[in-house]
Amino acid sequence: MIPLYHDFGGETVLVFGGGPVGARKARRFAREARTRVVSPAFPEDDYGGAELIRAAPSPEGISGWFDRAAPALVVAATDAAAVNEAIGSEARSRGVLVNRADNSGERDHGSVVVPATVEDGGVTVAVSTGGRSPALSKELRRRIEAEIEGVGELADITASVRRSLKDRGVDPERRRRAVRDVVRSAGVWKDLDSAETNPRQTVDAVVEAALGENT
Predict the structure, then answer these.
(1) How many whole angstroms separate alpha carbon 147 and alpha carbon 84?
(2) 3-state SS of the chain: helix, strand, coil percent to 5?
(3) In this structure, is the dihedral angle defined by the CA atoms of residues 63, 67, 69 and 70, taken in order, positive or negative?
(4) Residue 143 phi, psi dihedral angles, 5° rounding
């Protein structure tokens, strides 16, 4: 599988199953997409603001749910194997992405894995074991979370640096070297961890030093 980021803005995600797994998937996708959860019961407390549709879909009725929702992605998270299989089959026949929550390891054509993610500002790091070990994904996420604290701010700063250097007419190769020196600077990372220092000042010093070395 090849990891990709997909923009679900304006799209519909259809989740079948209202249990803990379905609720977790709904919370994830409802942050960006129109998300509908189809289930005969909703035992969880939080579905992320998704639309909840109380129904018990049968394998024969899955096609109709696709017709009504026109989803970009469907999640099969019911406790009925026949229903999940019908969801996967219908998705494949229509070229719709499908996440089979009841499958581990082996994946069908057109299927997707929802990774564990860590976010800091505009930076997102995704971790996946291909569905083989969700527990390991979660543990790796926990470890990475502590390592990337502050990177959202650094991403904003380096984006500003790139624009500034471009406006100054600095050639692309020198811009790349300067930004590379910034993200590798121990001083910059130290400032990101401290509330008493201004990382932008350190960044500017690193940039000027890099430009001076390249003249």
Answers:
(1) 38
(2) 45, 15, 35
(3) positive
(4) -70, -40
- Long-range CB pairs of 83-88 (<8 Å, 24+ gap) are 83/16, 83/57, 83/58, 83/59, 84/16, 85/59, 86/59, 86/60, 86/62, 87/16, 87/62
Give yes or no for a contact between 125 and 149, defined as CB atoms under 8 angstroms apart.
no
**48-92: per-residue pLDDT in tens?**
999 999 999 999 999 999 999 999 999 999 999 999 999 999 999
- Domain shared by 108 and 155, yes or no: no
- pTM for the model stands at 0.78
Task: Give residues with Cβ within 8 angstroms of 60, minimum separation 6.
Answer: 86
Question: Which residues span the domain enclosing 19?
Answer: 12-114
Query: CA nearest 125: which of 141, 103, 149, 109?
Result: 141
* 200 lies in the same domain as 110: no
